[in-house]
């Protein structure tokens, strides 16, 4: 069985994590497949938006604990394997934010531990109203330190710390209120809403979205003064794009732009 499925519809690529019997856990194979797919899509100029979803009854249950326990059998007790695993996972997560196309998480069922990290990492997220989210590793004695990185960059610190230290799950409405997801929708509307969001992005000038996504994450790490200086330069770069000139002229002339 193919562990990651890809289906392209127009300018939208849909990736489906396809290990339902493991709740789409981020196994070694799944991490490699995801990173490879994101690398491939990043080079595909025909794709303007990506939807990431899971098959079966869950979005993603986090790391594959059976594989992790098997890693303990090495002479070092698994230290080298665990370090490599978390490094590979972090690289995959960062690839999502460095690729030019926005990535939308289409979430259902559960998104736990590194699965919740995956939702927090995606640029946008739409979830069905029966989804549960958690960074619940503390319940089995493993604090979700790497998921914490993405989570604390999405939601209020105190809310994140409570989730991390108690293992408490939150529902879709609370996830939306905290800023973890963009939209909470009825299960029957989940696929439609994710597609509509992707289509709205796909209609925009790809070079402008690429420039903007890169700047969005870069400026977030800067001081206010540094961010204004940097984004001012980005705006200049964007203004000098031929298609941006056409877009502005089209707006002023009350017509549709003829982008190349």
UniProtKB/TrEMBL annotation:
Function noted in UniProt: May play a role in fatty acid biosynthesis and insulin sensitivity.
UniProt xrefs under CDD domains: crotonase-like (cd06558)
Organism: Yoonia rosea
Pfam family of the protein (one): ECH_1
Assigned keywords, A-Z: Fatty acid metabolism, Lipid metabolism, Transit peptide
Matches recorded under SUPFAM superfamilies: ClpP/crotonase (SSF52096)
Keyword Lipid metabolism: yes
GO biological process, one term: fatty acid metabolic process
Lineage: Bacteria, Pseudomonadati, Pseudomonadota, Alphaproteobacteria, Rhodobacterales
Gene3D superfamilies: 2-enoyl-CoA Hydratase, Chain A, domain 1, Lyase 2-enoyl-coa Hydratase, Chain A, domain 2
Protein name: Enoyl-CoA hydratase domain-containing protein 3, mitochondrial
